[in-house]
Amino acid sequence: MKIKPYIPNDSSLAYSVGVTLDRFIKKKQDDFPFASGELSQLLRDIALATKIVNRETNRAGLANIGGAFGQTNVQGEEQQKLDVIANIRFTRALTKGGEVCAVVSEEDDEVIDLQNSSGKYVVAIDPLDGSSNIDVNISIGTIFSIYRRVTPVGSPIQLEDIMQPGSKQVAAGYVLYGSSTMLVYTTGCGVNGFTYEQSLGEFFLSHPEMKAPEDGKIFSVNEGASKTFSKGLNAYLDTCKSREYSARYIGSLVADFHRNLLKGGIYIYPETAKNPEGKLRLLYEANALAFIAEQAGAAATDGSQRILDIQPTSLHQRTPLYIGSKKMVEEAMSFVGKDNVVAAK
């Protein structure tokens, strides 16, 4: 019997489909602090829920699950039907996965205790960011942070397990539901992006070792509120316009952040007269994106300090956010620091 060694065939008749998310996670498991498989499984649980939410998002118009749900969340924002569906899907996946002891969600007033005292991780999540854009077919997303609990495994969940600064994250990521669905995440060892192949039901590595341009020519901010911005911020925006930078603002945090991460730019959601503490949530929006930004060589600040250094004091704490290419953030701070007094409403 003759035995022939396998030689990879580069024929264009059968192109390589690439590295799957599952295979990538297994390969990189040794890079995780405290690697023992639980974090790997947790990331797979999130990926599974993402596939289900992606399906629901794509069929929203056909299944009558678009539009408002008829209730408001703790933020005072009107819940959309898909907000509720996504929250259920992610919470259910994390519960069944068995690696998580508690979940903090934008859609729930209180911490969700999963009654799993053996779980080693806490997840903070915005299940569906920008969901009001569903009805007009604009990109939306999911944002998540993963923390390792600080109290002993086996004991009840405590407040100190939840109120950890962003610098304590062991992993963070976002999902962009757009012209293609992408999952981007970091475990503190760089940033990698995966694109969903619907016909195969798999995420494939499409953006390895993502790096943000050090500088850029895009600024993303809701200029409709500019009359209540600080003089310093308005001066910075005037400088951007004088240089003929591109103004790009989708109104969906994940989509705006993703574009600027790839192309170079700055996203700004400052404090205003209406929202003096800012509007974005620290635990499940700003922290995750700041972790990703820094791992990709970008920067994130609240206007006075690094986002990842902020010690949270409340579950749904808000924060201003200046995030993006490092040089653009630094220049914006040079203006904002001079005069950060918000104009009267």
UniProtKB/TrEMBL annotation:
List residues of the Fructose-1-6-bisphosphatase class 1 C-terminal domain: 213-335
Q: Where does Mg(2+) 2 bind?
A: 126, 129, 285
* Database matches in InterPro entries: FBPase_C_dom, FBPase_class-1, FBPase_N, FBPtase
Q: Which BP terms from GO are recorded? A: fructose 1,6-bisphosphate metabolic process; fructose 6-phosphate metabolic process; fructose metabolic process; gluconeogenesis; sucrose biosynthetic process
Name the UniProt key words of this record, in alphabetical order. Carbohydrate metabolism, Cytoplasm, Hydrolase, Magnesium, Metal-binding
As its record notes, the protein acts as a catalyst of: beta-D-fructose 1,6-bisphosphate + H2O = beta-D-fructose 6-phosphate + phosphate
Name the Enzyme Commission number(s) assigned to this protein. Answer: 3.1.3.11
Q: Report whether Metal-binding shows up as a keyword of the record.
A: yes
Fructose-1-6-bisphosphatase class I N-terminal domain spans which residues? Answer: 20-208
What is the annotated localization of this protein?
Answer: Cytoplasm
GO MF annotation terms:
fructose 1,6-bisphosphate 1-phosphatase activity; magnesium ion binding
What does the entry list under GO cellular component?
cytosol
Report TM segments. none
Q: Which residues bind Mg(2+) 1?
A: 106, 126, 128
Q: Gene3D superfamilies, from UniProt? A: 3.40.190.80, Fructose-1,6-Bisphosphatase, subunit A, domain 1
**What is stated as this protein's family in its record?**
Belongs to the FBPase class 1 family.
Which NCBIfam families does this UniProt record tie to the protein?
PRK09293.1-1
Name this polypeptide is given: Fructose-1,6-bisphosphatase class 1
- Whose protein is this, by species? Belliella pelovolcani
